[in-house]
Amino acid sequence: MNKKQLVSSRQILFSGSMQSIISSVLCALIGILVGFIILLAINAEHAPKAMSTILKNFMYFKKHPQQLYYFGSTLVKSVPLILCALSVLFAYKAGLFNIGVGGQYCLAIGISLWCALHWHLPWLSCVLIATLAAAAWGAISGALKAFFNINEVIACIMMNWISLYLVNVLMHNESVMNLTLSETYSVRKLSASSLIPSCGLGKFFHNNEYVTVAIPLTIIIAVIIMVILSKTTFGYELRATGLNKNAAKYAGMKDKTNIILTMAIAGALAGLAASLYYLTDIQAWKTSSSVPGMGFNGIAVAFLGGLHPIGVIFAGYFIQHITLGGSFIDMRYYNPQIADLISSIIIYTCAFVLFFKNTLLALFSKIALKKQEDK
User: Fold this and answer.
1) 311 three-class SS
2) Are 102 and 160 in contact (CB under 8 A)?
3) What is the DSSP string of 47-88?
4) What are the tens digits of pLDDT across the range 286-314?
5) Cα–Cα dist 23/38, whole Å
6) How many Å apart are CA 9 and CA 170, to the nearest integer?
7) % helix, strand, coil for the chain, step of 5
8) Within the chain, what is the greatest distance between any pair of CA atoms?
9) Residue 7 — pLDDT band, cuts 50, 70, 90?
10) CB atoms within 10 A of CB 313
11) What's the whole-model pTM score?
């Protein structure tokens, strides 16, 4: 390796992107290791097989058609997690903590299903209305922050519970919900035109009817978010406002407008997550007493992805891969909730991504300084 290649390799290793990747991988490995230790403590004999099953997910099946089908289902269930993480990421880049993703997501579930099951609107109309509703919901927290300096975390938490109870009330209607089961009707049976179209993608996954254009749309949205944040004046202003609101205001930027816009866009992303998922008809809404966990999981995925839109795509898939893989564990030896426990541990360790990144930064800086002193 010549000197030029050596310098290039060091630049890659010392780059922020590489440190984020290393930190994310370390967190995932630690989560898997802790999960394996718990499996060993419960039943040491079957722990290796159980962990192998979790990591395999759809590869657990021996037949190729089944593998394809469940791989498609994993991709479908990754969509809302990725979009919720993008919602958290977008707000965080602007200096805001959108802990209200769960509420925005919940509201969009109710609106999208109401538009589909009660009004029988086409899928695009359902998605747009739900997205706009979630954007407006997010903008409320942004306005409270901008005009009254109310901490967005407090505002978002209150809005989460309000949205949950609003959706429970809205869905408690015979036209959209089976009141006996307390769950919404099938979109496929009541309003087929409201389903997200497959455009033939399902054929690639052994005719999985839940695989839709939501999957490529999610990737496109992630790329758009990346471009907005890194390549546009608007994105620069949002990041500048987040870093120092007073300095941004002094520079002539509309700090209040930027805060409201940021929360509105974050809300819109959460709205897309809900509508693009529930309008595949893969899951029904059930009357609930707690805010959907998807929003909170999105926080972990955003950090595991290194707060980068492309990283979030891989992180979201990884978490969903582990979660669904856990459902195939042999329940004769483990409690059915062990899968959720393992997934929760891995998600929890994702919170340490920034810690590891800062540790690596300090370590690499010391190495670089020592090499300079040696010269």
Assistant:
1) helix
2) yes
3) HHHHHHHHHHGGGGSSSHHHHHHHHHHHHHHHHHHHHHHHHH
4) 998 899 989 888 988 998 888 899 999 99
5) 23
6) 57
7) 75, 0, 25
8) 78
9) very low
10) 21
11) 0.90
Please report, to the nearest 10 degrees, the dihedral formed by the alpha carbons of residues 266, 290, 30, 338 taken in order: -150
Give the pair of three-digit tokens for residue 100.
């209200």
Mean per-residue pLDDT, 57-74: 89
- HSE-CB at 301 with a 13 A cutoff on CA atoms is 34
Tokens linked to 240? 């500048």
Per-residue burial over 116-137, b if 16 or more Cβ lie within 10 Å, else e, is bbeeebebeebbbbbbbbbbeb
DSSP 140-178: HHHHHHHHH---HHHHHHHHHHHHHHHHHHHH-STTTEE
Q: How far apart are CA 296 and CA 288, in angstroms?
A: 16
Task: Return the closest-CA partner of residue 297 out of 261, 278, 323.
Answer: 323
Neighbours of 202 (CB within 10 A): 17
pLDDT, tens digit, for every residue of 307-322?
899 999 999 999 899 8
d(CA 251, CA 249): 5
**Across-strand partners of 323?**
none
Is pLDDT of 367 > 80? no
Contacts of 83 (CB under 8 A, 6+ apart): 218, 221, 269, 270, 272, 273, 276, 298
Quick one: tokens of 251?
């520079």
Residue 234 identity? F
Neighbours of 174 (CB within 10 A): 8
Dihedral over Cα of 223, 226, 230, 233: its sign: positive
pLDDT tens digit sequence for 159-179:
999 999 999 999 999 999 999
Report the pLDDT value the prediction gives residue 6, as an integer from 0 to 100. 45
Q: Which of these, 295, 351, 367, lies nearest to 134 by C-alpha position?
A: 295
Residue 35 has pLDDT above 50, yes or no: yes
- Distance (Å, whole) CA 354 – CA 348: 13
Q: If pLDDT is split at 50, 70 and 90, which confidence band does 269 have?
A: very high
